[in-house]
Design brief:
With 370 residues, the chain is an alpha/beta fold. The chain contains 13 helices and 14 strands.
């Protein structure tokens, strides 16, 4: 069926660095979600931050792309970018202005004053992240407040966040739409593993941005204390877009242990699928998450998982033996030894709530309410 996009609802999206192939959970969320919304006949435009873009794309899988320059300062780049995106959305005559994350949501009242209808997606209480100082935490809390009070509609990605919205702000009509996970792409070849010097089924895998709340330093420290047990290696995929102090600390910890700890940098696509396909287990020791897409991806590959017992991870309802107390080195060590000393058993997980096609339909229903 041919669709006249000039007559379709116009959605302008901001609050993310951009798509495709840009590191971050919100970025992955938008990369999966927005093309599916566009495929349903909606005119979708994403406003990217030019500083993070490595391409000259004007469109990606049906999603229009506009790049706007902003100063690359993590303390205020999101606010400046969102203000510029409001002006662009007004010029484009957007029907819906969709803002992701509580930081950019700070300027929701400005968007409303410009006559825009606003949807915000609350991806988690970012003010709980260790990297932020007092002033930044205050700004993020205020952003959460402004977004929830002034947005036409609010989407939350987990029950934990929904509870925050209800109990702190008494808003009972937020829409619970979970993060999603794409279908797994099992890669039987091991070319990338060979290049890394890693054997199939002989490594523990983790991935994410190099930020303090991921607790990768704990995982590296505990893994190295196993003293090369059974020849296993730790593979860590990720990096930090700001190349900050924590990122330097992670790389420093791994220096000199390249035969045990493999840092791949930021990867996507076939290389990432290959690592998921052949891993023995996936570990996520975070102290803070919204609803981790990386964990959902590991589950889609039927991997045994070891995760901290924070609310976002508990919400996924894994078997009890998958959890360890957050920050507890000894319990994490016990879990790793159990995986390494025994033949890991693949597990089937219930992932019906995390299907991107359904998530796109639920998001469209929110747009249609407005």
């Amino acid at each position: 069926m041919l669709i006249n996009l000039e007559q379709s609802m116009k959605i302008v999206v901001t609050g993310t660095r951009g798509i495709p192939n840009i590191i971050g959970g919100v970025e992955t969320h938008c990369e999966e979600l927005l093309p599916r919304i566009a495929a349903n006949g909606y005119d979708v435009t994403i406003i990217r931050r030019r500083n993070y873009v490595q391409d000259a794309l004007k469109e990606y899988n049906g999603v229009k792309i506009i790049d706007i320059g902003t100063p690359q300062k993590k303390s205020f780049e999101a606010i400046i970018h969102t203000l510029k995106a409001i002006w662009m959305a007004k010029k484009l005559r957007a029907d819906i202005f969709h803002v992701h994350s509580v930081g950019p949501a700070l300027v929701t009242p400005v968007a409303r004053l410009f006559g825009l209808k606003v949807v915000i997606t609350h991806h988690g209480p970012d003010y709980d992240r260790e990297k932020w100082k007092k002033v930044a935490k205050f700004v993020l809390r205020t952003g959460e407040r402004m977004g929830i009070w002034f947005a036409n509609e609010v989407i939350v990605i987990s029950d934990v966040i929904n509870t925050i919205v209800k109990e702190k702000y008494k808003r009972t009509n937020a829409h619970l739409i979970y993060n999603g996970v794409p279908a797994p792409n099992f890669i039987q070849t091991t070319h990338y593993l060979e290049g890394l010097g890693v054997e199939p089924q002989k490594y523990i895998f983790t991935m994410g941005r190099f930020v303090p709340e991921k607790n990768f330093q704990q995982l590296i420290k505990v893994f190295l204390s196993l003293d090369n047990r059974n020849g296993y290696k730790l593979v860590l995929a990720g990096d930090d877009v700001f190349n900050g102090l924590y990122s330097h600390e992670i790389k420093k910890m791994a220096r000199g242990y390249e035969d045990k700890v493999i840092l791949t940098g930021f990867i996507k696509g076939e290389k990432l699928h290959e690592l998921f396909t052949h891993a023995s287990a996936f570990v996520l020791p975070s102290s803070h998450e919204g609803l981790p897409i990386s964990l959902l991806e590991a589950m889609s590959y039927d991997l045994p998982v070891i995760v901290s017992d924070i609310p976002a991870n508990l919400e996924v309802c894994l078997p009890q033996d998958s959890y360890f107390p957050v920050g507890n080195d000894e319990k994490l060590k016990e879990q790793l030894i159990k995986i390494i000393d025994q033949q890991p058993i693949r597990r089937k997980y219930q992932l019906d709530n995390y299907q991107w096609d359904n998530i796109a339909k639920q998001t469209i229903e929110v747009y249609e309410r407005i």
